[in-house]
Amino acid sequence: xxxxxxxxxxxxxxxxxxxxxxxxxxxxxxxxxxxxxxxxxxxxxxxxxxxxxxxxxxxxxxxxxxxxxxxxxxxxxxxxxxxxxxxxxxxxxxxxxxxxxxxxxxxxxxxxxxxxxxxxxxxxxxxxxxxxxxxxxxxxxxxxxxxxxxxxxxxxxxxxxxxxxxxxxxxxxxxxxxxxxxxxxxxxxxxxxxxxxxxxxxxxxxxxxxxxxxxxxxxxxxxxxxxxxxxxxxxxxxxxxxxxxxxxxxxxxxxxxxxxxxxxxxxxxxxxxxxxxxxxxxxxxxxxxxxxxxxxxxxx
Length: 300
Hints:
This protein has helices at residues 20-33, 61-73, 148-156, 173-187, 232-240, 248-253, 264-268; strands spanning 3-10, 12-13, 39-41, 76-78, 82-86, 89-97, 103-108, 128-131, 135-139, 161-165, 190-194, 197-198, 206-208, 214-217, 223-230. It has 300 residues and is of the alpha/beta class.
């Protein structure tokens, strides 16, 4: 067993004012109370909130401040995410910083929350990184979780822990909690889902174990929640099955079926094509009818 302590920070955030100084304060308090913590994770868009106007060009001064903070406390740090500007393109980007203060990777959210997260472009590259003598970690952000292929790919890349900063302030948070638990069970991994408060979400952060078992669930108040995990549990679960039963990763590996749903013909000609554009619903407008493809099982 190699224990590893990860702390989530669920805190109130502003969409108007910078939250960076308060994040630094909260992290300092956390490390004073829990000096044994080795990694800290904040929620999505924690530093500046959900306004694209606050986008930064990376590397930036704010990221450098977090690098100094990680080195000072000798911790791995994922300070939520920030909007990143690259030319005329905006991404939602999370930096991963090691205990020496180095940026080991930046992950661009693959699935912006369209049609609501307008103006943000999705990234194309997955991010996994190794914590020496502990295990392999993967990063996803908020709505990525709703597209299960993202988590499955991280697991296929060897991720044993998925770090998942989110910003959810809407009435579907209960559904997200179910998806978080299902993701941990399907990918047989630890899943750290960290939400914010105020302009940064409605809380209810959750940590799930590789058997789909909730290890901690937060309420709707500010909280620092350190959880010590044993990554060998992931390897054991993947070897013997979830609670000694299902082995979904092996089943996926050993499959004989091909999935034509991933072919372009299904996107361009199949049922998906009849779902209508990805846009906000309009009051009293009827939903689009899926059309004749509703009954098409194998479009060619």
